[in-house]
């Protein structure tokens, strides 16, 4: 369930909040601009609170898509545009549910829709304002994005792909079991991907188990996932509530904020400080941060340059692990329910690899595996709802007024389940991305257009995330067989596809059977893993 604060507030909080709502409504009614163009359609609003009580308690992307279809049928102006308006305590939220609308607003009108709303909870109270994904559009954002792209563009694959390969090869259980709770195995995946990010960013090695940096990253990702959902905390819609909530006797708000802020500070500073120490003592391993420190212009503003390096290194560390884990988690769900897909992918891998592990250079020769990865991104995207954009000016689109200051949110799930682009969208069908000759069909819309964000705020490391998911998928399918778990009587345990809501979406925990495909595969896994 999404952490909508209405569900987490105590009864005694509502009196104070009610007064704040009244004040907010009065103030909003005096400042709201009039326009000769109508607002986009949406659910009927209540006085003062608007659609506060209409906010979905979870899986909001599905509800927004349903609303879009409903209002599209009613309103002739929309003509399939697929936008929906919500108003929460005077704040306008535009949900964009179609590819055409997303392209028009986020790409063609990027100067108006490239900024981010500055949520008090995430940016100020928790302190994550230094993240690229949280920054307003402007020079600080450009500086950090430029530095990231300089070192992690696709032209620099020779820098990061060997590290990716090393850590993906480390994904193993010791010894490999025949049955397990998948969550345990996925923690090994998380550790490997987190270790890869830590190595790329700082050159810091990780412990085999219970690494403090990986544990820190996991807690930090969970805190952001909870707090970054629009509507998760009423303080984001009504900043004046901050003081009210902090003064309520017995309220846990202040303690929660302090815990989250301390977690952010540790995440931001601990690996950076350790790397500075390693550089000073001459033991630092090659990394993004060590390379950047060598490039500092001593004639310029050195403290500012170090601040940009520090922030960007933190972004490299934070970027990959949880979203990658979601994609791999979905791989197991898909293979459990579609053994025929697993068999086709393994047949292609066997034909191309001939008994070795896959390399990045094999990708052009493995179109079916690539189609499986594309379908994983489309079927259950890791971030079904994109991080909100911000309308920096009033705009008129398709005859509707989009008010300055509106939150504009891309519904990636709705776009990736568009029946016109992807017939039978609920089904897992990698073949939809292949032509009649079995090659990738360039005429089918690439799910990356929505899976990694939109416009100028699209994830700058999307190609790195894609490459990690591709090589991990190819490695798993080349060596392992995924099938139903069995109970104590040897009977198969039926699995129901179920996902948990959140900013980053994961399947609900489940059991399955994971076996090496053969004795040769088992020996290959162990020999390669032991070589690192």
From TrEMBL:
What this protein needs as a cofactor is: heme
Q: Which CDD domains match?
A: CYP64-like
A GO molecular-function annotation: oxidoreductase activity, acting on paired donors, with incorporation or reduction of molecular oxygen
Entry's Gene3D superfamilies? Cytochrome P450
- The keyword Lipid metabolism belongs to this UniProt entry's keyword annotation: no
Q: Tell me the superkingdom of the source.
A: Eukaryota
Key word Metal-binding present in the record? yes
Q: Kindly give the Pfam families that the UniProt entry links to this protein.
A: p450
Q: Where does heme bind?
A: 459
Entry similarity comment? Belongs to the cytochrome P450 family.
The molecule here is called Cytochrome P450
Species, as recorded = Cyclocybe aegerita
| Lineage summary | Eukaryota, Fungi, Dikarya, Basidiomycota, Agaricomycotina
